[in-house]
Amino acid sequence: MKSKKSLEQGICILLIIAHTSSDQCVTSEYLSHRLGVSDSYLKKITRLLVLEGLIQSNPGKKGGFTMNRKPERISLYDIFHAIEGKDPFVNATGLVEKVFFHNPKLAHEREKEVLQIFDHAELLYKDYLKNFTLDQFLEDISDYSI
Q1: Mean pLDDT, the chain, integer
Q2: What contacts 97, CB < 8 A, 6 or more positions away?
Q3: Minimal CA–CA distance to 64: which of 86, 83, 39, 81?
Q4: pTM, 2 dp
Q5: In principle, which of 21, 51, 72, 131 could form an S-S bond with 135, CB 3.0–4.6 Å?
């Protein structure tokens, strides 16, 4: 499985916002300049983070983004889910029926077995991500400005 590069960018966006004073908003222009990505692309990522409830978008002249949850309440799974979505890692296309064309029942059984293995692996992967929270990555930089 290959994650989108926006997953790394989403984590970096959250780290910058979380490290900023809670009474300050971080603008999309600042984030895009800081990360070296286009402002329009960055806005797509921040929108996903807002929709997931991880950050808040504050309109106005002094607007921008602030944290919507404390970093210790945001797991890597939450970020993964916001960026990657809910679609399963693997979907069947019915191609296995061409392998076991002589026995459609066997084709269905094999397809089901393979999907169960990938579903279980996906569950383990996502559960593992839930063990790590954003605050763990802020500990070493709390005394530094980002």
Answers
A1: 91
A2: 104, 107
A3: 39
A4: 0.87
A5: 72
- Closest to 138 (Cα-Cα) out of 81, 74, 53: 74
Q: Distance between CA 66 and CA 44 in Å, rounded?
A: 16
Closest by CA to 16, choosing from 77, 65, 51, is 65
Long-range contacts (CB closer than 8 Å, 24 or more residues apart) made by 21-29: 22/66, 22/67, 24/64, 24/66, 25/58, 25/62, 25/63, 25/64, 25/65, 25/66, 26/64, 26/65, 26/66, 27/63, 27/64, 27/65, 28/64, 28/65
pLDDT at 2 over 80: no
Of residues 43 and 98, more confidence is placed in 43
Residues 6 or more apart in contact with residue 105 via CB below 8 angstroms? none
Amino acid at 49: L
Q: What is the mean predicted confidence (pLDDT) over 136-144?
A: 76
Give the tokens for residue 90: 């693997």
